[in-house]
Amino acid sequence: MFKIVRKQKLAPDVCLFELEAPKVAEKRKAGQFVIIKLNETGERIPLTIADSDPNRGTITLVVQSVGKTTHQLNQFSEGESIQDVVGPLGKATEIEGCSLAVPIGGGIGIAVAYPIAAALKQAGVEVISIIGARTKELLFFEEKMRTVSDKLYISTDDGSYGVHGFVTDILKQLLESERVPDRVFAIGPLPMMRAVCKTTLDKRVSTVVSLNPIMVDGTGMCGACRVTVDNNTRFVCVHGPEFDGHEVDWVELMKRQRMYCSDEKRAMELFREKNAHRCGGQCHD
């Protein structure tokens, strides 16, 4: 069992958890993830490790309520425990060969951009970070990103904070007005990462994306997380989660992400029905 030692609400439907997981905390590197299972009957889901403290033996996870399991997890409280936390899994972020890098986090992807930016900064790389969200209230980790960035730019779709627009709008300006970075790291919704890759293609800037497709066992055995990269089949859990964004088959990936939408919707409906029945219709998300 893995005890929750701290919980913090970061934004609507987004919570931060610090878990006691000393072996994971000792070995994890930027870009790696864990697969968790809440209880004996729960499903396995991947979550990127946002931070760790080897001295305290804790790892930090940032969870957005999207499906049944993430909604269920965000209802957990400090002192409660998660049954299984397996990791660290996946390959660590490659930071060699960078003198100037641009980590970009969109929405919940900010939680993944932070450890990448921190690792780059620790390695002596100049870091220009970009974070964005639909509105100001959905932004988080701003101060944490500032501590690991030489410059930080912020955008919101509705203009409620920072630049009115998308992270790609800021990226375009950077690519035109400042020296071209050695590498761009994009983490966020698939359309956002795809748009970043289109933006950097003309400038031929190396662009790394962190993929989070359907995943089950995390060992490469089940094949659920397969993606096509450079016309070859890859498994995100063992070959990734980071890939050259210019080589990803985005059309195929987006189709695969929608394969179980109806099942996920039904699972969420059943979860809400059980919650309402358990608390007499007085529960609120």
Structure description:
This protein is α/β, with parallel strands linked by helices. It has 3 domains: 2-89, Translation factors (Elongation Factor Tu (Ef-tu), domain 3, Beta Barrel); 93-208, Rossmann fold (3-Layer(aba) Sandwich); 211-265, no CATH class. It contains 9 helices and 16 strands. A 7-stranded antiparallel sheet has the order 6-1-2-5-4-3-7. Helix 5 (167-177) runs parallel beside helix 6. The radius of gyration is 19 Å and the shape is globular. The model is unreliable at 281-285 (pLDDT under 50).
How are the secondary structure elements laid out?
Elements: E1 2-11, E2 14-20, H1 22-27, E3 33-37, E4 45-53, E5 58-64, H2 68-73, E6 81-82, E7 84-89, E8 100-106, H3 110-122, E9 126-133, H4 142-147, E10 151-156, E11 163-164, H5 167-177, E12 183-187, H6 190-201, E13 206-210, E14 226-229, E15 232-235, H7 236-239, E16 242-244, H8 250-257, H9 261-278
Parallel strand pairs: 8-9, 8-12, 9-10, 10-11, 12-13
Antiparallel strand pairs: 1-2, 1-6, 2-5, 3-4, 3-7, 4-5, 13-16, 14-15
Helix pairs in contact: 5-6
